[in-house]
Amino acid sequence: MKKVFGRPASLKKTPFRYCPGCGHSLIHRLIAEIVDELGIREKTIGIAPVGCAVFAYDYFDFDMIEVAHGRPPAAATGMKRTLPDRIVFSYQGDGDLAAIGTAEIIHAANRGENITVFFVNNATYGMTGGQMAPTTLSDQKTTTTPKGRDPRTAGYPLHVSEMLATIEGASFIARTSIDSFKNVLTAKKLMEKAFRYQIEDRGFSMVEILSPCPTDWGLSPEKAVEWLRSRMMDVYKLGIIKDRYSKESHSWKKELS
Q1: Residue 34: what are its φ and ψ, rounded to 5°?
Q2: pLDDT of residue 54
């Protein structure tokens, strides 16, 4: 019988301990598959911060570094400049990248650092109890906004990808989702492209991935996916937001087909 499924070599034989319906495990697998298919496992270095991303070193079977909250872009910068032949990526959540790490990600993009960033956006602080994050939607209920986020006092959802796309040093910025088989395939394609841009020395690349967090959203895994589609994807449009090296004209308003 032909084998049609197998564990990627870049994933350890360790059961995931993420909550049921969480998107991290699926995103981990996509990264591992891409690393294997590109043949870069022996020279890949992943960097993850505080948050649910902190568990990444338990699952990836290549070099991993854990750093302080919000600091992966700085650590990735130092690692890539010291070892330019390595493939360096950061794996960050929205509570990390879009909050305490905002300055880090902006200046890494502005310098055009030749690194790859995977930005997992679930619109909440996942590990610490479901508090409001910069990406939390208006009116979304969290443990710190029990009546819903009020933009008058808490500001508006931060569109990190659109913001970074305005920076000259950023080469490739895209947003995708893992809510469906179709979007998972698209996510893998965009994530691979972000890796390839680094391999080709094209500068800073980032892929934002919309991901469900059923536990902190107070929903079943099925309902969490539905909420992601009906609410998050309406606010955070999917698509290629910036591609410096593409001849095509992309817009955040144009969804990927």
Answers
A1: -65, -45
A2: 84
Q: What is the pLDDT of residue 247?
A: 61
Q: In the predicted model, what is the mean pLDDT of the chain?
A: 92
Tell me whether residue 4 is exposed, middle or buried, using C-beta atoms within 10 angstroms of its C-beta: 0 to 12, 13 to 18, 19 or more. exposed
**Environment class of 43 (CB within 10 Å of its CB; exposed 0-12, middle 13-18, buried 19+):** middle
* Range in 1-10, 92-101, 203-212 the model is least confident about: 1-10
pLDDT of 205 strictly over 80: yes
- The token pair that represents 14 in the structure block: 């360790």
pLDDT in tens, 158-175: 999 999 999 999 999 999
Domains of the chain, start order = 24-243 (3.40.50.970)
Q: What pLDDT does residue 113 have?
A: 98
Contacts of residue 254, Cβ cutoff 8 Å, sequence gap at least 6: 239
Length reported for the chain? 257
